[in-house]
Amino acid sequence: MEKLVIDGGKRLEGSLRVSGAKNAALPILAASLLTAERVALGNAPRLNDIGTMLKLLRGLGADAVDDGNSGIEITAANLSELRAPYDLVKTMRASFLVLGPLLARFGGGEVSLPGGCAIGARPVDQHLKGFAAMGAEIGMRDGYVRASAPGGLRGAEVEMDTVTVGGTENLMMAATLAEGKTVLRRAAREPEIVDLGNFLNAMGARVSGHGTSTVVIDGVEQLGGTGYAIMPDRVEAGTYLIAVAATRGRVRLTGVDPRTLGAVLERLMVAGADIRTGKGWVELDMRARPRAVDIETAPYPGFPTDMQAQFLAMNAIAEGDCRVTENIFENRFMHVQEINRLGARIELRGRSTALVHGVERLRAAPVMATDLRASFSLVVAGLVAEGRTTIDRIYHIDRGYEAIEDKLSALGADVRRI
Ligand code: EPZ
Predict the structure, then answer these.
(1) Prior bond to 290 cis, omega within 30?
(2) Which atom of ligand 1 lies nearest, measured to the CA of 188?
(3) pLDDT tens, 88-133?
(4) Dihedral of alpha carbons 77, 83, 84, 85, sign
(5) Cβ(309) to ligand 1 under 6 A?
(6) 160-171 core/surface letters (b: 16 or more CB in 10 A; e: else)
(7) d(CA 238, ligand 1 centre) in Å
(8) How many Å is the Cα radius of gyration of the chain?
(9) Adjacent-strand bridge partners of 15
């Protein structure tokens, strides 16, 4: 199994181009099932999760060509299968996003029930509630969810009980080909949802209000092929900003949209970072030891759960004490024990709060990655620790961070994969 070896203690400095957003690319790839015509995507990140989604689309019978760089072409003219199997869904929950498109275009589909995952239970009840409101029959058998609407979906008013990114996306996709108008209330407002809405409109859909808590979709007869460039990855961008700040470094990120990073930039400034932004770039300069900063995760535009672990790692070496509150997932503090192995002083209070007592320095130790973002928090800790940190199970990192050793090395870090 591959490991990452980091010789810590170096200031990171330089410039970096941010990749396309994993969490925008995944729903957009699923949405390409909504048309028989060719969809050509640009700025797609090269990640294991993208590979998993392409495998799923090919398994359904779509033609998916990856140009080996950042271009992907999908043609889903005819499908041979309407079923997403357990072995793919269990490795990546975003596989569930094919159900909306299958239901909308083919009148039915079956997707393995995702079940639990490392960061919590993560049910899909809100996706199913919306499909049912649009007239689909929902059944469960042998661990699979089966949805069918042979006569087509009907537009509906759906008020979600909780803010869900994937639920909003699945229902938006399903509604594009439904008869009449769908109104999604308490919709998630994440920038990736805006990107999906823009992509659907480029295919000929009539989506409005995406990016607000009420999304309106007027169903159309059919959708067509299109070309589309995926938005920059705000989580990758924020992660590198945090890593650089933790090492008291300096960086210029390009290919990024600073407007999507509001809460993270604000917290970094409170921690003492000097930040400048312009169209397509962000610069960060951190001269002193970071100050401890409370963070509390919330749906967008709040502080993202996907950057909680990395920020917590920076807080571990910050000056002062602070509180980190996780409100989105019930089990997203598994990195705490690992960071403490490096000499951090972090106490867990229940399942949603971590009290961080900043220490002056961390000391290297072997640690183990537990989920995607948690693994990068160990990288942050390893970068600031004195000595050699080895991170095991880094396949988690490869799900969501493109070319991590190359990008960190370009900033002067001493990192290699063994
Ligand atoms: C998306 O997951 C992201 N994944 C996650 O990123 C991210 O952490 C999450 O949104 C929150 O921002 C992708 O975009 C592919 P949710 P998703 O539905 O859509 C509960 C990463 O590291 N819920 O918004 O699965 C759920 O249990 C990943 O890149 C229900 O109760 O998240 C959770 O507590 C990890 N019922 C909360 O809502 C439902 O039907 C938010 O989940 C659906 C969700």
Answers:
(1) no
(2) 24
(3) 999 999 999 999 999 999 999 999 988 666 766 679 999 999 999 9
(4) negative
(5) no
(6) beebbbbbbbbb
(7) 18
(8) 21
(9) 252
Shortest-distance Cα residue to atom 39 of ligand 1: 124
Active-site residue list: 117
- Widest Cα–Cα separation across the chain: 65
Instruction: Answer yes or no: are the C-beta atoms of 130 and 166 closer than 8 Å.
Output: no
Alpha-carbon distance of 103 to 145, in angstroms, equals: 12
d(CA 372, CA 374): 6
- What per-residue confidence (pLDDT) applies to 290? 98
Q: Is 310 in the pocket of ligand 1 (CB under 6 A)?
A: no
Q: Kindly give the parts of the chain with pLDDT less than 70.
A: 115-117, 119-121
Q: Is the CB of 305 under 6 A from ligand 1?
A: yes
Q: Where are the alpha helices (DSSP H) in 185-261?
A: 191-202, 234-246
Distance CA 366, CA 124 (A): 36
Report d(CA 185, CA 175) in Å as an integer: 13
Q: Quick: pLDDT tens for 144-201.
A: 999 999 999 999 999 999 999 999 999 999 999 999 999 999 999 999 999 999 999 9
Cβ pair 237, 310 in contact under 8 A: no
What local confidence, expressed as pLDDT, does residue 114 receive? 83
Distance CA 388, CA 7 (A): 4
pLDDT at site 174: 98
